[in-house]
Amino acid sequence: MGHRETSNHSEVTDFILVSFRVHPEFHILLFLLFLLVYAMILLGNVGMMIIIMTDPQLNTPMYFFLGNLSFIDLFYSSVIAPKAMINFWSESKSISYAGCVTQLFLFALFIVTEGFLLAVMAYDRFIAICNPLLYSIQMSTRLCVQLVAASYFCGCISSVIETSMTFTLPFCASQAIDHFYCDYRPLQRISCSDLYIPNIVSFFLCSIIILPTIIVITVSYIYIVSTVLKIRSTEGRKKVFSTCSSHLGVVSVLYGAIIFMYFIPDRFPELSKVASLCYTLVTPMLNPLIYSLRNKDVKEALRKILGNKLFLFNSILTENRIK
Hints:
GO molecular function: G protein-coupled receptor activity; olfactory receptor activity
Largest sheet: 3 strands, mixed
Number of strands: 5
Distance between the termini: 64 Å
Keywords: Cell membrane, G-protein coupled receptor, Membrane, Olfaction, Receptor, Sensory transduction, Transducer, Transmembrane, Transmembrane helix
Transmembrane segments: 28-51, 63-81, 101-123, 143-161, 200-224, 245-265, 271-293
CATH topology: Rhopdopsin 7-helix transmembrane proteins
CATH architecture: Up-down Bundle
Structural class: mainly alpha
Function: Putative odorant or sperm cell receptor.
Protein name: Olfactory receptor
Oligomer: single chain
Strand content: under 5%
Number of domains: 1
């Protein structure tokens, strides 16, 4: 672990990611588990993006947002999983200062963007169900692009503030981060400065990120439920609830894990790591499954792609036999 001595504290050049406190024999098991989950994330989210981009019937605002959700899930899990898997085999388990800054910045950027994007998706469902005749006018291509860009902008601003605030802290204690990736709470634990102002800023950021998105999602679904209850057809109700249940499932898993993690006292770091797993790896793995299994359009598009591939494969086999 490299460092250069300054006046009263060390200028850190790298950190050690402690990861999970288990016997070394279990590192292989954890590596295989992370590898399996990450492979499912790659397969599910890349597959979802390909399906949405190749099927003209999915050229709607809902699937535009869903494609962006898959992109975000793919990249923020890729910020975490590869380095964690490398460290299961590494003895030093180190990450450079620049690498730690980059990891925290990108993760904060994508996770906050996802929160705003889920609120946008709830608003989209509200317009589609409560104002179906005006849906194509209100949810124009321009507005959809603006809403996604605004989500990324909010994520970027939040990430810049959080990252710059965290890495201006002096790290006088051990450079061992008790986590499997660089997160601001474990980094704050190894700082020797007063954390009153950083905690106030973090609380303020969480408030202006989580509260508005939860309010938008909650109000949207209050209107959706009131509209659905007015539908006399049982089949119509089932169709609407089927469309919305996928989104609600994703929101519940993500926000449940985040809220649970940030309410865990610092004296339970291992429990915090397990909660972090839910939204860093489990949520990106489940999102494509939830949307594909609960969505008839996605399943139909997947059947078309697989059918075309199978037809092409059979054609090649037939040509080879004739030759």
